[in-house]
């Protein structure tokens, strides 16, 4: 039985896992499609949208004080006076309208508008969080899938070492311990492959959960972790960060505080309202000849002294200063976060380059050790260590790519950008990768 046949028997199930995802679902799922699907079904987005609709209805309700109020009242009574029973029915229609209230209505409407804007920003912030979560889960699933492929290559390399050791042992030019060491290394590689399969299944389950799909569902993912895209200037992201929902929300808090401060002027001014009413009375006995009543009036109310309105005005002034201070602190925090996230991307980008170079060196070292062992110039220990270092370099390369994309996603979130990170659709060939 040839080495190629042995590899086919050993690794066919694992490759079926990787390439045998059901294709009945149609084309592969891209990151953009996953984000659109997740935004439609995610419960947090639906809840934030309902909160925004509720705030919009409450803002519309603040129109009520600007319109007249109309009331209708009706009653029916039976009265017994000195043995005589009288029946009376009353009905009245009244209308009132506030002509001037010192700005209370305007204050309520401005505050409701600020709350509506805050609800809108909360919806936007929730959408950004969901986009970040789905993008990160998508990248982690791709990375877990690639790590599983690398683990399969690791098992293949370990099987090759074992095959060479067995051949040299049969020729009498290697010790039994060489075969045992190579065999142990092969079992370790198989163990790591099993763990990689479990990690891949968990990463995929998290992605399907965010998309509202069954946790054990399968769908091919379209995308690759490389090549790395260009990175915009740091100032570009810092400028975007000052328009994040959390900053705009703090600005709305300042506007609401200003409206509340203006509203504290209302108790110092009179309230003028107009009333009109019509009342009709029908009945028997003394109520038989009661005339209808018509009433039109104008009422002015002016509070001359009330202690709390002075302190309310002072408290509103303090709250306005506090909201401005919180706005400045929010801007400081988001700029610092964006700056640090940018540093994470730069560091991750350099780590990818270092991992690529380490992989190239490890690959050369493994080939050298394998060649030397074939001709009897090297030891099995050096070969096993070289293969183990190559496997670690492969995994480190994938992890560095994963870390880079996670850092990019976190940078976009820190900048408050609604742009979805575009993953490459084609894999660039790797230098000297063993297949």
Structure description:
- This protein has 435 residues and is an alpha+beta fold.
- The chain has one domain (31-67, 101-269, 306-415): Up-down Bundle (Outer membrane efflux proteins (OEP)), CATH 1.20.1600.10.
- Helix content is 64%, strand content 12%.
- The protein contains 9 helices and 4 strands.
- It has helices spanning 3-19, 31-41, 43-61, 104-170, 176-210, 234-241, 245-263, 307-374, 380-414; strands at 69-81, 84-100, 271-283, 293-301.
- Strands 1-2-3-4 form a 4-stranded antiparallel beta sheet, with no helix packed on it.
- Helix 4 (104-170) runs antiparallel to helix 5 (176-210), helix 4 (104-170) runs antiparallel to helix 9 and helix 6 packs antiparallel against helix 8 (307-374).
- The chain is elongated and about 135 Å long.
- Residues 1-25 and 427-435 have low confidence and may be disordered.
The CATH top-level class label = Mainly Alpha
Radius of gyration: 38 Å
Task: Please indicate the count of domains.
Answer: 1
Mean pLDDT: 86
Q: In what order do the strands lie side by side in the largest sheet? A: 1-2-3-4
* Proportion of residues in extended strands: 5-15%
């Amino acid at each position: 039985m040839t080495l190629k046949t042995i590899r086919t028997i050993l690794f066919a199930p694992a490759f079926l896992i990787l390439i045998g995802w059901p294709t009945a679902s149609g084309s592969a799922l891209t990151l953009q499609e996953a984000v659109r699907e997740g935004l439609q079904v995610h419960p947090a987005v639906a809840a934030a949208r309902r909160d925004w609709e509720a705030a919009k209805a409450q803002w519309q309700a603040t129109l009520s004080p600007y319109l007249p109020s109309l009331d209708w009242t009706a009653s029916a009574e039976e009265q017994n006076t000195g043995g005589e029973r009288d029946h009376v029915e009353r009905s009245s229609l009244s209308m009132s309208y506030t002509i001037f209230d010192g700005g209370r209505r305007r204050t309520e409407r401005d505050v409701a508008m600020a709350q509506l804007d805050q609800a809108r920003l909360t919806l936007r912030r929730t959408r950004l969080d969901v986009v970040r979560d789905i993008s990160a889960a998508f990248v982690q699933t791709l990375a877990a899938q690639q790590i599983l492929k690398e683990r399969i290559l690791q098992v293949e390399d370990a099987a090759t070492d074992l095959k060479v050791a067995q051949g040299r042992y049969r020729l009498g030019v290697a010790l039994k311990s060489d075969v045992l060491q190579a065999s142990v290394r092969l079992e370790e590689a198989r163990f790591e492959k099993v763990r990689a399969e479990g990690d891949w299944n968990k990463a995929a389950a998290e992605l399907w959960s965010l998309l509202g799909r069954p946790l054990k569902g399968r769908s091919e993912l379209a995308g690759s972790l490389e090549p790395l895209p260009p990175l915009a200037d740091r100032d570009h992201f810092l400028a975007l960060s000052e328009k994040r929902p959390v900053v705009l929300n703090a600005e709305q808090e300042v506007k609401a505080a200003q409206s509340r401060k203006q509203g504290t002027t209302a108790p110092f001014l009179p309230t003028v309202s107009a009333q009109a009413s019509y009342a009709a009375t029908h009945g028997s006995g003394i109520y038989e000849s009661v005339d209808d009543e018509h009433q039109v009036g104008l009422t002015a109310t002016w509070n001359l002294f009330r202690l709390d309105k002075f302190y309310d005005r002072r408290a509103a002034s303090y709250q306005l200063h506090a909201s401005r201070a919180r706005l400045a602190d929010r801007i400081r925090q988001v700029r610092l976060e964006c700056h640090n996230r940018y540093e994470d991307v730069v560091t991750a980008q350099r780590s990818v380059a270092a991992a690529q170079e380490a992989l190239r060196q490890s690959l050369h070292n493994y080939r050298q050790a394998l060649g030397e062992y074939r001709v009897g110039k090297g030891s099995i220990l050096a070969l096993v260590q070289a293969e183990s270092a190559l496997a670690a370099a492969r995994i480190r390369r994938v992890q560095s790519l994963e870390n880079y994309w996670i850092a990019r996603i976190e940078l976009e979130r820190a900048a408050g950008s609604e742009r979805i990170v575009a993953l490459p659709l084609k894999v660039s060939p790797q230098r000297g990768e063993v297949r």
